[in-house]
Structures are given as C-alpha cells and as structure tokens.
Amino acid sequence: MLTVRKRPCPSCPYRRDVPSGIWAEGEYAKLPAYDLGTIGQAEAGAFAPFCCHSSPDLLCAGWAGTHDMAENLALRLSRKDIDPAAYDYVSPVPLFGSGTEAAEHGVRDLERPGARALAQMAKLRRIVAARKSEG
After folding, report:
1. What three-state secondary structure class fits 4?
2. How far apart are CA 103 and CA 106, in angstroms?
3. Is the pLDDT of residue 71 over 70?
4. Which of 20, 41, 112, 118 has the fewest Cβ atoms within 10 Å of its own Cβ atom?
C-alpha cells in the first residue's frame, strides 16, 4: 500500500524552508503538471505518483499536501492500494501553494546554490550512498 510520509522530508521541494537549487532541474520540472486538473495531468504526462526523494517507498508528503489528491490522475491510475489518508493529508510544515511556485523557487538558484543548499546536497549524497551500501 502506498502511504504518505508523516511529514515532508527536510529536503522536500515543496517545503518553503528548503533552499533553492538542491534538486536537478528535471525534478523541479515535474511539479507543475500536478497543479492541472485531471485531464491536464494526462496531457502533461503526470501518470506516476510522486514519491519522496528521501523515502522512495512513501508518497511525498509535500506533493500530497500541495495538490488536490481527489483530482490526481497518478493516484487514480496506480496499481497499488492508496492509503485513504493521502486524499486528506495536511502538512505540519509550510508548503508552497502550488507545484509551479515550488518549481520556480527550486530553479532560481540552480546555477549558484547558496551555502545552505550545498550543505543539504551533501547530506542527500550521504543518504543515497548509505542506501546503496545497504542494498
């Protein structure tokens, strides 16, 4: 069963307090498609549930807290059972109001990430390395 992470991870692209520029441009490019209605999501190719970057076996809490999950095509098409809590998820931390806002913030400093972004990227690299050594 796909469940939503309890809270957005510390590097979630939807969190207002996460520095700009920590994810690749292609990751930010995925976010605005989920702002669209169900038909628009189909036209934009938003067919996959957006899972957490830090915990890929869970749905991204920022994604669930930002977008209207009742209109979400990816959840409708998912072959896995979806935890009903995904449809009513409310984030305990401030999120951007849309995927577009999150993406605009995220790409702003891609060329020159600040010190906080660089520190967050280093932490993410350690998490990924640890996950690879476990499996």
Report:
1. strand
2. 5
3. yes
4. 112
